[in-house]
TrEMBL record:
Its cofactor is Mg(2+). GO terms for molecular function: metal ion binding; phosphoacetylglucosamine mutase activity. The keyword Calcium does not apply. The keyword Isomerase applies. This is Phosphoacetylglucosamine mutase. Binds 1 Mg(2+) ion per subunit. One of its GO terms (biological process) is carbohydrate metabolic process. It comes from Acacia crassicarpa (northern wattle).
Amino acid sequence: SLLISSSSHFLPPQGVRLSYGTAGFRADASLLSSTVYRMGILAALRSLKTQAVIGLMITASHNKISDNGVKIADPNGGMLSQHWEPFADALANAPSPQDLVQLINDFVKEGIPFNGVRPAEVILGRDTRPSGDALLKAAKEGIASIVGAIATDMGILTTPQLHWMVRARNMGMKASEEDYFEQLSSSFRCLMDLIPSEKSNRSGPNDKLVVDGANGVGGGNLEVLLKQLNGLSIEIRNYGEDGGVLNEGVGADFVQKEKVVPNGFDSKDVGIRCASLDGDADRLVYFSVTAESNGKIELVDGDKILSLFALFIREQLIILSEEEDAKNSRQAHLGVVQTAYANGASTNYLKQLGLEVNFTPTGVKYLHEKAAEFDIGIYFEANGHGTILFSEDFSGWLVAKTKELSSKSKGSELEKAALRLLAVNKLINQAVGDALSGLLLVEVILQHMGWSIHRWNELYHDLPSRQLKVKVADRTAVVTANAETVVVSPLGLQEAINAETAKHSQGRCFVRPSGTEDVVRVYAEASTQEAADSLANSVAKLVD
Ligand code: 16G
Ligand code: ZN
């Protein structure tokens, strides 16, 4: 058959077992062509099964340039349904073309329609990695091996753009790259127009933002976006076209983990508002360079972006809830979602605001799923990946509300609050965390509040923390529960961690197996840096 002959060109690497982890398959790019080919097949089957457009993205995000990866976007633009992950694993590891065909036949028999249905349609994107082009061809061949399947190559994109396009296509909306830029820029302009007038002249030439593009796809795309905007002064560095290497000493992951300036930034930038994207632009952190000479920064991480977003949304909801005509008002349920990596000070701050804080295990799919339970759900990982979700029901209410208010109380604070929420609903990428839409929202909220990055950073003070990784023989031996905060196996380990933690004031510590690397990670937090370091070190010894 077609499948047998085409799959014989893509034999899996010997002696390597790949698994569909938190962010899809990731490995050295030279090992991936068979996996990507097979994920092309999976994407086409998923499209037949759901009768919707599916996305396939080739990226290894913040990892080194020689790595690559592949992940699938589901019809709603989110991560592949977890029910399909075992099938993805099985396909990737099937030893021969015959085994592969057998697997597919068995799977199809369980209920994938082939006849009288809309053909499979997969849209593809890749980041700037040099290995991406060949891998994209492999994905296309995989898709083409399913009869009638259509593959649309969108070229080099940020990961969130591809997810956005899948979601837009399946909602029947315009879904090209131009449409993406147009939606972001028009909703951004709308939010700018709604800034209280006493604050709208704050930004001047001294208020520029400097962005580190991680030498990836984000810098160039941000530049395209900027051409459609007014009122933002942004300088972009680390485009990736001036000799810099993707993610090497640059980018959101580096800045957040190392807490030092990325390449291209130095003491001349002291005090300026800076931001870092990761290699595929689905993470965003802010920072400012401190006057100390050793490249130290003040880090404004995902937790603080979450706090800023939560404050702004809450402010608009409070205005709306003060509406006198109670019969049309609606008490919106706002929830925030974090992981155990969220700094304890951020959680306290959010709780103090009266917000409901929820915890899930690490990984976008878990946070996203939880946030979708609210009228407005905001999720962020400390590493800078996060977004805001508006429920369908609440979005509908908001549209009706703004219509009603535009005739009843045009120009009122009430109308402005509703219009702001509606604009956030359009600006923020609701398929997945998006550094570009997140950056625009941060910028407009800072202007709305009249805040500098320092004022923002003062919302609360991070507790000192330390992260370590421990190489172990078998990381799956560590099993956790309660959103990764408690070890249930091996027996006795949690008790030992508790005993260490109790020795430190404001101590908090947890360990978990990484979903992307062959290590166990240790996180510790305490009232001083020395205490956090010592707690992390002693717990790392317990794991070893
Ligand atoms: C992946 C996840 C990210 C998570 C990270 C943790 C997605 C799209 N990405 O990059 O959310 O923070 O893994 O890595 O889910 P770790 O398991 O190695 O600590
Ligand atoms: Zn990324």
